[in-house]
Amino acid sequence: MTQPAFEHLDHATLTRWLDDGAAVTLVDIRDPLSFSRGHIPGSRHVDNATVGELIDATPHDATLVVVCYHGHSSQQAATWLAGQGFERVYSLDGGFTDWEHRHPQRVAR
């Protein structure tokens, strides 16, 4: 049996999606303090205590983009979310650190 899959997403594609107003659910899995210090506008902070709410409130055909610090932990979280039945799950390559470096003007604080 194959493991549910996610796709990698580069920052340029995410930028285009956001600029085009695409319906994207940004799921930031970093710690609460890091999230409060800066995140991609429109992101929602999700951790073990709130992931159930995300699963219950989000249609399984929604586009999810998982964001972590450097793009590593988000791959595991994206795999897990795909396993919960989400059909379009992406892991942001380079994570928030790369996003903030490339798009400092596109960070909510």
Structure characterization notes:
By secondary structure, this protein is α/β, with parallel strands linked by helices. It contains five helices and five strands; from the N terminus they run βαβαβαβαβα. It has helices spanning 11-19, 32-37, 51-57, 73-83, 95-102; strands spanning 7-9, 24-28, 44-45, 63-67, 88-92. Strands 1-5-4-2-3 form a five-stranded parallel beta sheet. Helix 2 links the parallel strand 2 and strand 3. The model has no long low-confidence stretch (mean pLDDT 96).
How many beta strands in the DSSP annotation? 5
Structural class: alpha/beta
Low confidence ranges: none
- Major sheet description: 5 strands, parallel
What is the overall number of helices?
5
**How are the strands of the biggest sheet laid out side by side?**
1-5-4-2-3
* Helical content (DSSP H or I, runs of 4+): 25-40%
Sequence-ordered SSE layout with sheet pairings:
Blueprint: E1 7-9, H1 11-19, E2 24-28, H2 32-37, E3 44-45, H3 51-57, E4 63-67, H4 73-83, E5 88-92, H5 95-102
Parallel strand pairs: 1-5, 2-3, 2-4, 4-5
Short description:
With 109 residues, the chain is α/β, with parallel strands linked by helices. It is built from five helices and five strands; from the N terminus they run βαβαβαβαβα.
